[in-house]
Design goal:
Length: about 300
């Protein structure tokens, strides 16, 4: 079967155009690093890759939430350690103040130190996080939760606890609120009271005479109360760290699966590009030579 000149030329042009298209596709894959450039390439794989991308985005958000939670909980842990140290010192001063041999000057000195420690407790209760939000104000984080008044210390926050989602369906408070930490120390056989009121009672009784008999038990209860919330904070921090470990493992697996589905094999692409480029160059060279042939060339 003879092939006409026009048909031959058209066949060669089509073949070279097809090679150029394939080369262009390879160059796109090399440039992007991906073998899935459009849904039509592989609709099923493209859908899976899109879903995995969404999972990675969600895990990145969980990572940011975890970072924020770790920062606030670590800060809370540090603050509670400082508060605990102050309450321990208040216990020591309470024991000193209970000594019946103290004169008015000694009791006054102990009362003054206790009062200064109470001011430090207020400052710690008004700690702010990295964003400038008050750590222990609950949802009212834009203003100081603890304010000194003529009657003692007033709590201006609320009972809320800021929470963040650290994994799908898993949330954690990023701190306790000031009401439960400082204002609700449980007393055996009586209503709860605040750490500030305990210190205020101690200071008043020392300045008036002998230390009140209920101060030492109250300070011990305050110590136990703070230990409970330190343990709660530690448990929350451990929960966050476990979530981060799990997230990192899931992220690694998801990215590995996504890479298998959509990443291009650059080594193979480089080989294909070289082969097809050489084939195109050869075809163009042959076509150019054949195109120059005429009947006059054969008659020479």
């Amino acid at each position: 079967m003879q092939i006409g000149t026009k048909q031959f030329y058209q066949s060669q042009i089509t073949s070279m155009a097809d090679l150029q298209t394939k080369i262009g596709r390879i160059q796109e894959e090399v440039s992007s690093g991906k073998k899935l450039l459009a849904p039509s390439d592989d609709p099923g794989a493209y859908t899976v890759a899109n879903r995995l991308d969404q999972s990675i985005s969600a895990m990145n958000q969980y990572g940011r939430n975890i970072g924020m939670a770790k920062s606030r909980l670590a800060q809370e842990d540090a603050v509670l350690s400082s508060v605990s140290s102050i309450v321990t010192r208040l216990n020591e001063l309470g024991i000193q103040g209970a000594n019946g041999t103290n004169d008015s000057i000694a009791r006054g000195a102990i009362a003054e130190e206790m009062d200064q420690l109470s001011q430090q407790l207020i400052a710690l209760g008004n700690s702010v996080d990295a964003n400038g939000d008050y750590l222990f104000a609950g949802y009212k984080s834009g203003r100081p939760p603890f304010v000194s008044t003529v009657d003692g210390v007033s709590y201006q926050g609320d009972t809320g606890r800021k929470e963040v989602e650290i994994a799908q369906g898993v949330s954690t408070p990023t701190s306790s609120n000031g009401l439960e930490l400082f204002m609700n120390v449980s007393r055996q056989g009586s209503e709860s009271t605040s750490i500030f009121d305990i210190v205020k009672s101690a200071v008043s009784s020392l300045r008036e005479g002998q230390l009140s008999s209920d101060v030492l038990p109250a300070l011990k209860e305050a110590t136990s109360h703070l230990s409970t919330y330190q343990a709660i904070c530690g448990a929350r921090l451990q929960k966050v760290e476990t979530a981060e470990t799990t997230r990192q493992s899931q992220m690694l697996n998801t990215k590995s699966t996504l890479s298998i589905i959509q990443d291009a094999d650059l080594t193979q692409l480089a080989s294909d590009l070289q082969q097809k480029s050489l084939t195109l160059q050869a075809a163009q060279s042959v076509f150019a030579k054949i195109s120059q042939l005429t009947l006059f060339n054969f008659m020479k």
